[in-house]
Specification:
The complex is a heterodimer of chains A (112) and B (374). Chain A is α+β, with helices and mostly antiparallel strands and 112 residues long. Chain A is 63% helix and 12% strand. In chain A, helix 3 (41-48) packs across helix 4 (52-64). Chain A is globular. The N and C termini of chain A lie far apart (46 Å). Chain B is of the alpha/beta class and 374 residues long. In chain B, the strands form 3 sheets. In chain B, strands 6-7-8-9-10-11-12 form a 7-stranded mixed beta sheet. In chain B, a hairpin with a 4-residue loop joins strand 7 (121-127) and strand 8 (132-139). The chains are: A alpha+beta (112), B alpha/beta (374). Chain A binds chain B through residues 1, 10-11, 14, 63-66, 69-73, 75, 77, 80, 82-85, and chain B through 28, 35, 38, 41-51, 53-54, 57-58, 60-61, 65, 257, 302, 304. Strand 2 (68-73) of chain A pairs antiparallel with strand 3 of chain B, so a sheet runs across the interface.
Chain lengths: 112, 374
Amino acid sequence: MALPSPIPPELAELIAARLRAIGDPTRIQILDLLRSGELPVGEIAARLGTSQQNASRHLGVLLQAGLVARRKAGTSALFSVADESVFELCEQVCGGLEAQLAELSALVGRAR
Amino acid sequence: MTPATATTPSLITPTELAGRLGRGEAITVLDVREGGPAAVEAETALGVRVPAAVALADPATLAARLAGPVAVVCNRGQIAQPVARALRAHGVDAAVLEGGVRGWIAALREFPVELGLDGLEVRQVQRPGRGCMSYVLAAGGRAVVVDPAPDPGFYIELARDLGARVTDVVDTHLHADHLSGARELAERAGAALRMPAASLDRGVAYADAVEPLADGDRLDLAGVELRALALPGHTTDMTGLLVADRALISGDSVFADGLARPDLERGDPAGARAMARLLHATLAERVLGLGDRIVVLPGHDHPVVRASALAPTLGEVRAAVPELSIADPDAFAEELVAELPPRPANYESVIAVNAGRRPSDPDLESGANSCATR
C-alpha cells in the first residue's frame, strides 16, 4: 500500500505495533524457523533452546500481529507464517545492516 | 481465491462452519478481535488474527494473503461485517461467522457412540467452541440426557429424532465452567431432574425440584441399566453413570487424555491437594477396576471440531494419561497441582448460577473450558 502523508496517528500506531511484534530477537528467530514450513510449538521451543512457555508467549505476540497462523492438530498447535512480506521487511533491514557492518569492519580495520 | 459475487451469501452459521470443518474442508478463520484465545479450533481451520482496524485500513494487502474460503470472526458478528465486505470487494470468498464467538461457543454437534447394546442409542453432543460434552441415551421411547448445554430445544429434537421423549435429565456435578441446561431442559420436557445427592449438600436453591442420585442408584432405561457411581475428586459431588457396564459417562474425573483439575471447589493449596488425593482414590478404587475395555464418555474435550465421537476405551485413556500410573497419592497430588492452568472465567459465579443462587447470565460463559489439569 502507498502510505499516506502525513501518516495519521492511528495508522502510525498500527505500524508501530507491527514493528514491535517483529522487534525481538526470539521472534525473528521463530519467523526464520517457520520459513521452511509449519512447526509445532514444542519443536520451535526445542530448536531455540527455550521453554515451551516462552516460545508460546512469543508465538502469541506474532499471532496477535497477524504474522503467523495457527491450526490445531491433535493436542498440539501448528504454526506457520501468515504474512510472507515480513521476510522482505527483514531483508530490507538486514541489507542496511550488512552495509553498516561492512563499513564498521572497514573502519575497525583502518584503526588497527 | 474464488471470485465472490454479490449474490453469494456472506454469512456462515456456527453449525455450518463446524460442519464444513468437521468434513475436513480447509477454511481460513480470520479473527478480527483485539485479543483473546483462539476461537475456532480444527485441524483444517487455519487461524489468522488481524484486528478489524488493521484489516479495514488496508484490505487489499490482506486479501492478497488470504487463500480459499475465509470465515471472519469477531465477538458478536458485527465488526466482522465491514471486514468481510471489504475482502469480498477484493475477490476473497469471505463470510461473517454469524453471532461471532458468542454464536460459536453455543454451537452443538451430535455423533453416535456404538456400545453394541440392542435397542440403545447413544449420542455424544459436542460443543466445539468450548469442549463440553453431553450425552443422550435413548431406548424404548425414553431418553436420558446427561450434562446438557443451555439449549433445551437441541436435546428435545435429538430425542425426538431417536423416537424418544426426554424423561430424565442428569447433571453429573455442579458445573464450574459452563451454565447447566439441565433445569430448563427438565422443565421444558417435563422430565425428572436428577443431581447427585452430594450436589444438594453443596447448597442448591432449587433442591425441592431435584431427585437426588446417590452412589449405586440405578435407573432403568427400557432394560438398560444406568448406575450412579460417585467419582469425587474434581468436586465432592462428581458422580458418573455406568451404562450397562459397557461405558462410563465419566463427567469431570478422567478425560480422553487428561484428568479433571482438583481446585474448583476448594481453591486453597491444601484443599486442592486434599481433593487431588481424593481423585487418586476414586481412580484407583472405582475407575481403573472397571477394566481396559470399558468405553469412557468424558465430560470434556479440548475445544476442537471433530469428525466423530470421542469415546476411547479405558485402556486407551491409561496409555494417554501417565498420571494414572502414579501409585502414591501424595506424588499424584503434587503432580496434579504443579502446573494448573488458570481457573475457568467467572467459575464462582457459574457455580452460583448452576446452584440457583444467582440469576443466569449467558455472558458468564466464554472461551474454552478449563476443567482439565492440562
